[in-house]
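Following up on my earlier message about zinc ion. Here are the inputs again, as you asked, copied directly from the submission form:
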Amino acid sequence: MPTRIITDGSTERVVPAPRVVLPAAATLFAERAARFAQLSQGHPFGAYLQLMARVAQAQHEACAARPALPTSASLLAASREYGMPPLAALSHERAALWREDLAAIVQSLRPRASAELAAALQTLAGADASELEALADRVLAGNATDADAPLVPLVGAALQVYFTRQAAALPVDDVSRCDVATVCPVCGTRPVASVVRLGGAQANLRYLVCALCSTEWNMVRAKCSVCEAEKSVGYLSIEQEGRSLADVPIRAETCDECHSYLKIFYQEKDPLLEPMADDLASLALDLLVDERGYARSGPNLLLHPGSS
Ligand SMILES: [Zn+2]
Ligand SMILES: [Zn+2]
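Thanks, got it. Here's what our run produced:
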């Protein structure tokens, strides 16, 4: 684990960079909503990003309205001793609470919903518990059907709320030993993107950001986040007006070993970057990288499958 020298003017101390950073559930979704709203200004998909701002605001309200449930001591012990993600998304027994989060999100999106969104909200409002659980299983496993597509971002939003709230309540020392560097140490999900952080003990370090629970974990830079190869990593970006390529805050980190890519965000070049929002606002980069033959490695649960 790298360490940074932090100088605060009077004393010099060595602060170890955290290996794992749990999500700040109280503020994360509100900040995401603000970022979506900001990104929507003058954006070719501005209306879509404004809708996503409303989704994130609904997530914020749902997150605050319900408590985290206790995580069993045996799961935390398995995490400490064997590095197993305590909330492994594919096997975790979800509490019914996530469906309350979903109902709240559905309710808050009803006003001003387009015909297509209203139909999706209606479908979810009318689905029974077993249908919703099966749908959640498909979303988490990444095998949602075409018919599920309009429902996926809404179910994904509710699952994010539930898992983020659960993750935020964990003792960080209990989840810092996962030795599989390519998946979230808390829930085992792939990262949505990686961020080179700005400031504090995390400055200049690269963190992968979980697509489900927003936990962040450290991985050295210039290393493929899928196959961990170091020599085959390259970067692609889209030129932005008024910025040189080296100064662009978003790049795709590509790997010629496994032919995958994941976006990497440089917070130093844009301090307000928010991984989930900036990912959806930069789908043009996905198209470019896709054309070059790289396959995206991590999901964005707020996106329809196949719509990128
Ligand atoms: Zn996670
Ligand atoms: Zn690779």
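One observation from looking it over: Residues 184, 186-187, 189, 210, 212-213, 215 surround zinc ion (ligand 1) (CB under 6 Å). Hope that helps, and feel free to reply on this thread.
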